[in-house]
């Protein structure tokens, strides 16, 4: 019996010694740190992001899960509040950030995390509130001028040139959609909310200024004076007429490019024509953004991962998802410059204006669309419609308080 006890004792000592020699990482493999990313990009883009995230994770001792998510603000808020939300939201349209910001779910970006000079300034503005950065821009999108190259050799550079050519070859777009028509309101100084030191002021609405009314008058002329398009035109009708080569000019975004290529339409894209005195025509710019949840328990690591993803996925997302880069060095790369269509959208985006990201923007869309319809049907003058629009927007904002 004594010999048996000695044998068992020796065996236990050897066993403990062996265990002691095993690296702790091997014993506690399941305790490896983890970061979770919810992405609002497409399935193909999410799939392309995972290897990039894995590379960072391997170098920094984390497992990273990139999960496709198309949920609502409410679903994210519920998950975040219950501790089941992600560390990073990646690829959310920037104009949705306002609701998250108001609910205090956005963790402010550390001041020295990125070098702002490396980014398109418009994209950074889209991710900021009250002058402070709350998200990292990933990519941007806007609309520009499509033109049929078999009808027109060169894109019009000015509004006068566009009007002259459009009278002969045709021009249509979704004219009663404020998203597109804002460009003509803004080209002479109109604005939605005044930007005051990096903060948008919802009490200062610039949609009934002299410049805005001048733009609304031009929009009216597109329909009632020049009769380029019917008063009830919709985006799909305008697109169909361009695709069938019935018109030479059409305003839209990168989302229509592949359909025109498949239909073998001879086309090119150019920035929107400037005013006759050389001012750019600023389109609305949308930005896909990444933010760190204020409820994340791994904020420092999450910011490092988000920065890595933003800086190392730009070209991948350009190739896979046709996303316009927001990093200046990627925009200047040979791969991007070789794509003349996407480069044209990028040039337009540089002079664009971010769609307002504050929650009060939700009170703008319906009154603005109604005003455009009143103008293009001749039921109200541009000034009458503009004044009514601003009054309705103010009422809508007041109801939000």
From TrEMBL:
MF-aspect GO terms: carbohydrate transmembrane transporter activity; maltose binding
Cellular compartments annotated: Cell membrane
Pfam families per UniProt: SBP_bac_8
Swiss-Prot/TrEMBL GO biological process terms: maltodextrin transmembrane transport; maltose transport
Classification via InterPro entries: Maltose/Cyclodextrin-bd (IPR006060), SBP (IPR006059), SBP_1_CS (IPR006061)
Gene3D superfamilies the record matches: Periplasmic binding protein-like II
Keyword list, A-Z: Cell membrane, Lipoprotein, Membrane, Signal, Sugar transport, Transport
Name of this chain's protein: Maltodextrin-binding protein
């Amino acid at each position: 019996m004594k010999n048996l006890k000695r044998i068992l004792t020796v065996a236990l000592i050897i066993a403990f010694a062996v265990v002691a020699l095993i690296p702790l990482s091997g014993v506690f493999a399941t305790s490896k740190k983890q970061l979770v990313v919810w992405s609002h990009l497409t399935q193909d883009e999410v799939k392309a992001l995972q290897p990039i995230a894995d590379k960072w994770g391997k170098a920094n001792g984390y497992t990273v899960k990139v999960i496709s998510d198309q949920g609502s603000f409410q679903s994210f808020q519920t998950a975040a509040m219950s501790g089941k939300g992600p560390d990073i939201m990646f690829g959310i349209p920037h104009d949705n950030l306002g609701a998250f910001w108001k609910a205090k779910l956005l963790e402010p970006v550390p001041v020295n995390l990125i070098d702002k000079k490396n980014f398109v300034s418009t994209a950074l503005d889209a991710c900021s509130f009250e002058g402070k950065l709350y998200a990292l821009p990933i990519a941007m999108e806007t609309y520009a001028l499509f033109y049929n190259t078999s009808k027109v050799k060169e894109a019009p550079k000015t509004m006068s040139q566009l009007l002259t050519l459009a009278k002969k070859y045709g021009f249509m777009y979704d004219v009663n959609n404020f998203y597109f028509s804002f460009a003509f309101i803004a080209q002479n100084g109109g604005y939605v909310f005044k930007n005051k030191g990096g903060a948008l002021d919802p009490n200062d609405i610039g949609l009934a200024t002299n410049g805005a009314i001048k733009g609304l008058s031009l929009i009216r002329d597109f329909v009632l004076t020049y009769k380029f398009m019917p008063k009830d035109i919709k985006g799909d009708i305008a697109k169909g007429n361009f695709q069938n080569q019935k018109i030479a000019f059409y305003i839209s975004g990168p989302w229509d490019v592949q359909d025109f290529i498949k239909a073998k339409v001879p086309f090119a894209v150019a920035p929107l024509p400037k005013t006759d005195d050389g001012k750019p025509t600023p389109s609305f710019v949308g930005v896909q953004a990444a933010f760190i949840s204020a409820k994340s328990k791994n904020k420092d690591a999450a910011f490092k991962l988000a920065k890595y993803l933003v800086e190392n996925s730009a070209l991948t997302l350009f190739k896979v998802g046709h996303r316009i880069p927001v990093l200046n060095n990627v925009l200047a790369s040979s791969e991007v410059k070789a794509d003349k269509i996407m480069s044209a959208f990028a040039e337009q985006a540089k002079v664009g204006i971010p769609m307002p990201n504050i929650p009060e923007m939700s009170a703008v869309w319906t009154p603005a669309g109604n005003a455009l319809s009143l103008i293009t049907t001749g039921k109200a003058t541009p000034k009458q419609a503009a004044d009514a629009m601003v009054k309705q927007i103010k009422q809508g904002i007041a109801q939000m308080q």
